[in-house]
Amino acid sequence: MDVIEYTPEPEQYAWTFGGVAPTHRIKPGSVLRLWTEDAFCGRLRDITDMPSRALNMPYVNPQTGPFYVDGAEPGDTLALHFVDLTPARDWGASTTIPFFGGLTGTDRTATLQDPLSERTWIYQVNSERQTVEFAAQASDLRLELPMAPMLGTVGVAPAAGEVRSSLVPDTFGGNMDTPEMHAGATCYLGVNVDGALFSVGDGHYRQGEGEACGTAVEGAMHVTMLVELIKGGAPAWPRIETDEHLVVIGSSRPLEDAWRASQVDMIRWFGELYGLDKLDGYQLLTQISEAPLANVVDANYSAATKVAKALLPRAEVYRGTHGRLREAASTIA
Amino acid sequence: MDVIEYTPEPEQYAWTFGGVAPTHRIKPGSVLRLWTEDAFCGRLRDITDMPSRALNMPYVNPQTGPFYVDGAEPGDTLALHFVDLTPARDWGASTTIPFFGGLTGTDRTATLQDPLSERTWIYQVNSERQTVEFAAQASDLRLELPMAPMLGTVGVAPAAGEVRSSLVPDTFGGNMDTPEMHAGATCYLGVNVDGALFSVGDGHYRQGEGEACGTAVEGAMHVTMLVELIKGGAPAWPRIETDEHLVVIGSSRPLEDAWRASQVDMIRWFGELYGLDKLDGYQLLTQISEAPLANVVDANYSAATKVAKALLPRAEVYRGTHGRLREAASTIA
Amino acid sequence: MDVIEYTPEPEQYAWTFGGVAPTHRIKPGSVLRLWTEDAFCGRLRDITDMPSRALNMPYVNPQTGPFYVDGAEPGDTLALHFVDLTPARDWGASTTIPFFGGLTGTDRTATLQDPLSERTWIYQVNSERQTVEFAAQASDLRLELPMAPMLGTVGVAPAAGEVRSSLVPDTFGGNMDTPEMHAGATCYLGVNVDGALFSVGDGHYRQGEGEACGTAVEGAMHVTMLVELIKGGAPAWPRIETDEHLVVIGSSRPLEDAWRASQVDMIRWFGELYGLDKLDGYQLLTQISEAPLANVVDANYSAATKVAKALLPRAEVYRGTHGRLREAASTIA
Amino acid sequence: MDVIEYTPEPEQYAWTFGGVAPTHRIKPGSVLRLWTEDAFCGRLRDITDMPSRALNMPYVNPQTGPFYVDGAEPGDTLALHFVDLTPARDWGASTTIPFFGGLTGTDRTATLQDPLSERTWIYQVNSERQTVEFAAQASDLRLELPMAPMLGTVGVAPAAGEVRSSLVPDTFGGNMDTPEMHAGATCYLGVNVDGALFSVGDGHYRQGEGEACGTAVEGAMHVTMLVELIKGGAPAWPRIETDEHLVVIGSSRPLEDAWRASQVDMIRWFGELYGLDKLDGYQLLTQISEAPLANVVDANYSAATKVAKALLPRAEVYRGTHGRLREAASTIA
Predict the structure, then answer these.
(1) pLDDT reading at D1 higher than 90
(2) What is the DSSP letter of C298?
(3) Residues of C in contact with D119 (CB under 8 A)
(4) Among partner residues A160, A164, A263, which is closest to D162 by beta-carbon distance?
(5) CA-CA to A261 of 20 to 30 Å: which in A4, B170, C166, D79?
(6) How far is CA A55 from the centre of its chain?
């Protein structure tokens, strides 16, 4: 297996999906050992660091990549398996950004009220206990919360010549901010351009579903991942497979449309795996779907449709790709 | 403890929240042993029963009740604890109703396409294995799915003299269709009128999050429940407490507004329980919220904000009501 | 022609559609000379009157009625023709109500920001010049604006036993807040209950499309209207006919669904009038529809689909009802 | 005045805003005499031409440009004045594209229903009478409709390095599809990149508000326009000025957010022009706003907030730019 180790310099960060020359050309089957900077570019380090001063908009959410995958062509399916996500710092940060977030007016949900105050929280990481510590600021509450590392942003170059901000999720993936993107998961993305040109970033040490205030426990991350290429079979929306679940992530507005897109693609997936017609698939999904929200804050909202494999017949998903990647992962972890 | 046993006759069904005279007057602390008819009034019994012919619109989703709770006044909090939910039939039914459901145009999301075909599924209940069986119709797939009984509809009379269809969820509860409403859960509802006038119905033997096609595995239910009254403290939106979780259900359109309402009320709840200010509460919720959808099909959509108690400090929730009800339940189950 | 003159006493106001006994029983063909109180119950009379103190929630938006129309049965069409709308006071009022309005967070679009400040504006009516005067408060700007009297709220009792707040628009009409409801207009409403039980209120001396802050230039109104009954033909959504236009008002959330509902019903109307199939109707509407918003502030938003008769072939709309009512109006104005 | 005449060859069409090298470098004050191809690339010429076969997705909605404007820098305001829009063909075309449009499920508003049938309509242009002719296909109705030429797509390169499809409207303008973009109008756009890099296209011989089926009477267009540059003052959203109106176009989803964005920016504009504070601006706008929809079909929906100048005090809008451009236009028309 080819092994690529890469820690980008700040000038190498990618701020968009598409529109960026690849930093590496890799073969399917490669192992990547990457470092990703946090969404704040590491600029929020203390509770006195306020986003309006510390951040250099729109240069937020830097991505590591893009990677050109040999042989990837439009219509193919890129499989990205996350072997390990390990926090690269002993602290993470979260904050309220004026007119950004799910429970505030924004530039789109435009209201006339004053913005919420800015406040920054720093979470200490306890690696031994695998926790991060929440510390309230207006009162004394401190809570140890389990670490749950994930990547907020995983995507490929968009179709039709578009270049999209790393803040936006859509059919190409991007800033979906779903807790389903954890170690052990395989993400399937439809390839839109030669080489796929994927990149990853936006490590979260922990995040709730919906990411209400717009920023998780953001932190630099060591990412170990495997890359596979499946010819053909490009899904309409990003799909995720774990040992226990099948997941589709839809991204749109209003939120019901994000959910609808993910539901319809899961029904399509049922058709591919089990030959269910759309009405039977609709019925089955109605009774077994989990529907955890991903983000209700980004330029598109993201919703997950998630199904436990234990409820379904065994099936050969993408020709057994996830199982093979899990095995390969066990040899390198 | 007073024990009320009640199986309504069809002419005693309630079709609305509000606007109906109480069938019973009960004391706080009462035990209710009820029977609830399914949302189809038991009219879909075979895969050849089609909703367009078998249902008598708008007479669907009949409720058992309403119950007048002695001493309940506007501003109080009604606590309904579900001790046991047991299927009252050995089959459940689901169907596609023309222009109703999450993945079809409706009278609101009005489109010009032809409706989806009607199709009815009958699920056989296996009480021993505690399963229901899905049987595809266009192919041979059969799947045994775990039973997971819940009530789709729980509510009180609305405020401001309104009378609302039992198909609609809102601040008064109603047709929230959330799988969080299972045995072992305590539902807290704000009282709007003297006596509260609550009713329950719409048993589901199983339902996925979102209830995509609009109908779960619908079935008549034996419901054992306890009723408590807490003076004052009426929550803005229905809240649910289980041994493991705190939950708020918001209901509105678009779906992000249902989610927003539930999130803001959970932050309010954090304030009540822990004295967190709204920014600290927003931050904490961002990192620990679960956000499983309830329904994306009814006149209002419903979203749950759900938090694991294990992540939070111990707290006296509604003066320990849930714990006391759990204990009382153990004496009668 | 029967002529009914009626100025309700405050204890006679109706606060809901449905759930209220009729104040009068009238015959089709009757003339009504009514007085309607403003949405604030006349309590905002000075710029120092603040809604949080002066209003007695939820007792706002009082309606005059309901009227039982002899012979009206479910499925029929009620035609309400507004002959004259004349301000009944020499001032109107508007205000910002905390957490109510289109450009602020609300109980549904729930955000954590502080509310906007309350501010009340009083508009002096100049009957001679037919204007109302806007006076800015934080600066010196004063503007004379043309008077444009309309009724914000016109509706019948809802279907399925529901009782709805006078603040809510839906298929039964209600608080649509459309400037299309002016003198000279005929409003067609589907009848849901025996007698139709319509009421009217919420006079606006002037209102922009969308009613952004949630309150127009609210004022008591002298309303002269004619009532007709058309057997059968109940439209799905309120329709309005003027000498120049056909209009349908849809009410839902999100706003696109209000628009969709009104568009689909206009296509249906084209089918009734001209025999256009739905695709030809869709095409024609695409090129000739006007789409002025009505309200983006109420519990449901309202959107108008409006078509100039001049662009269409002559047609017998509701058997010429509007024309006959215009003639009748000319004899009584 | 510099005069640029330009008819692009098909290989010179731009399919995106951003990401394309300029075809011309022009000076502020230049006159452009352009030709724009229709959104279908001229491929729908007969009612038997069906989009699924005739169109080469995603190569639709070709733009003429982009033009690099000397001296334009981020933060500046580009003023584009449309002197004349004259149909370049004697026919226009419209069609139903499967799963595209406002009254059908789409890839976002994902439903399981079958698509609407494809149908193509050809409109004959009568230059003398200045009309286009609608011809129903399932029946005999033919209607002569007034010509009302406009440009559906006008925009500059987006900010933050994004490249967006010519099908998408957003803060940079783009595919807003508003009938307000007619001859005599001046469009103000905020400049995001050096040179502004604007382009124009998507001529409509006529379009209703909302553009329900997704395609107007699409036609190639002769465009005569003037280009001015205003240093600084970049608006948040595209603004339009005519002799009679001020207009802001917001683009987002759900539709209420498009409307909110346009309303808030109009209140900001009132502040710039008249020194109104935001509450007084909110109040005034509530009573005088027109709110005609633009499109409810594109990747973002577009809504116009429109105010009659006659209702407002005289003001120096963008230092009198529109008036000067009108004068200049009169010398070249």
Answers:
(1) no
(2) S
(3) 279, 283
(4) A164
(5) B170
(6) 22
Provide the total of helices (H) and of strands (E) in chain A, helices listed first. Answer: 4, 22
Of A112, A115, A254, the CB nearest to C116: A112
Q: If we measure between CA atoms, which residue out of B179, B102, D112 comes closest to residue A280?
A: D112
Q: Which of B162, B253, B282 to mutate to test the interface with C (most CBs of C within 10 A)?
A: B162
Interface residue A161 vs chain D (CB under 8 A): yes
Q: How far apart are the first and last CA of chain D?
A: 13
For chains C and D, count residue pairs whose Cβ atoms are closer than 8 Å: 207
**CB–CB of D32/D67 below 8 Å?**
yes
Chain C contact for A333 (CB, 8 A cutoff): no
Query: How far does chain A reach from its first CA to its final CA, in angstroms?
Result: 13
Q: Determine whether the interchain pair B110/C160 forms a contact, defined as Cβ–Cβ distance below 8 Å.
A: no
ipTM of the complex: 0.98
Global pTM exceeds 0.95: yes
Cβ atoms of C158 and C17 within 8 Å: the answer is: yes
For residues B109, B111, B114 and B118, what is the CA-based torsion angle, rounded to 10 degrees? Answer: 0
pLDDT at B333: 64
List chain B residues with CB under 8 Å of A208. 285-291
Nearest Cα residue in chain D from C293: D291
How close D28 gets to chain C, by Cα (Å)?
Answer: 35
CB-based contact C154:C32 (threshold 8 Å): no
Burial degree of B245 (CB within 10 A; 0-12, 13-18, 19+): middle
Phi-psi region of D332 (alpha: psi -120 to 50; beta: other; left: phi over 0): alpha
Q: Is D280 on the interface with A (CB under 8 A)?
A: no
Which tokens sit at A9? 């310099």
Confirm or reject contact between D209 and chain C (CB < 8 A): yes
CATH of domain D3-235+317-332: 2.60.120.580
Pair of tokens at residue B63: 């409720």
Q: What share of chain A is helix, strand, coil (3-state, %, to 5)?
A: 15, 35, 45
Nearest to D287 among C145, C291, C313 (CB): C145
Cis ω on the peptide bond leading into residue A254 (within 30° of 0)? yes
Chains sharing 3 or more CB pairs under 8 A with chain B = A, C, D
Does domain A3-332 fall under CATH 2.60.120.580? My reply is yes
Phi, psi of A262 (to 5 degrees): -70, -35
Facing C112 at nearest CB: one of B108, B257, B282: B282
- Flag whether residue C96 sits within 8 Å of chain A, measured between CB atoms: no
Terminal-to-terminal C-alpha distance of chain C: 13
Q: What is the pLDDT along chain B (333 residues), one digit of tens a residue?
A: 799 999 999 999 999 999 999 999 999 999 999 999 999 999 999 999 999 999 998 999 999 999 999 999 999 999 999 999 999 999 999 999 999 999 999 999 999 999 999 999 999 999 999 999 999 999 999 999 999 999 999 999 999 999 999 999 999 999 999 999 999 999 999 999 999 999 999 999 999 999 999 999 999 999 999 999 999 999 999 999 999 999 999 999 999 999 999 999 999 999 999 999 999 999 999 999 999 999 999 999 999 999 999 999 999 999 999 999 999 999 986
Nearest by CB to B109, from C160, C260, C265: name it: C260
CA distance B140 to A154: 37
Has residue D6 got a pLDDT over 80? yes
Q: Is A52 exposed, middle or buried (0-12, 13-18, 19+ CB in 10 A)?
A: exposed
**Cβ of C289 under 8 Å from any chain D Cβ?**
yes
Q: Which two tokens stand for residue B30?
A: 């009462």
∠ Cα B70 B74 B78 (to 5°) = 60
Q: For residue D150, give the amino acid letter.
A: M
